[in-house]
Design brief:
It contains four helices and two strands. By secondary structure, it is mainly alpha-helical. Strands 1-2 form a two-stranded antiparallel ribbon. Helix 1 crosses helix 3 and helix 3 runs antiparallel to helix 4. The longest helix is centred in the middle third of the chain and has 29 residues. It is globular, with a radius of gyration of 14 Å.
């Protein structure tokens, strides 16, 4: 079921979700200071392309908290809002509910991606 879900996910918005994480990661990697943040964005892009069957575990320490605050100030809120709106649109139909739930998972990651581990 996970393989079929991931295939349908790419068609119904997952491809653009992954591309958004890749674009943000590339923007962060333009600067030397932003490379660690860009690398984390690439990890989240990997999850965005195939989220079914994967869980996110939140953790981290004080450094993750500081980076998450900087992330929120420089683009995290906009990404989270976009994923949340997409999730609401997908949840309008019964068939779109699983895809909407994956968008809500990505919205949570867009708020606090640092310190999160994908299982």
């Amino acid at each position: 079921m996970g393989c079929l879900g991931n295939l349908l996910w790419l068609i119904f918005g997952g491809f653009f979700a992954g591309l958004s994480w890749l674009a943000v990661g590339l923007l962060w990697c333009i600067t030397i200071v932003g490379i660690p943040i860009g690398k984390q964005c690439f990890k989240m892009a990997q999850l965005s392309f195939a989220p079914f069957g994967k869980e996110v575990e939140y953790g981290g320490g004080p450094i993750s908290l500081i980076v998450n605050i900087l992330w929120l100030l420089f683009g995290g809120l906009e990404m989270a809002a976009g994923f949340a709106v997409s999730g609401l649109i997908l949840c309008i139909t019964v068939i779109g509910i699983p895809f909407g739930m994956q968008m809500f998972k990505l919205a949570g990651l867009a708020l606090m991606p640092f310190g999160a581990k994908v299982k």
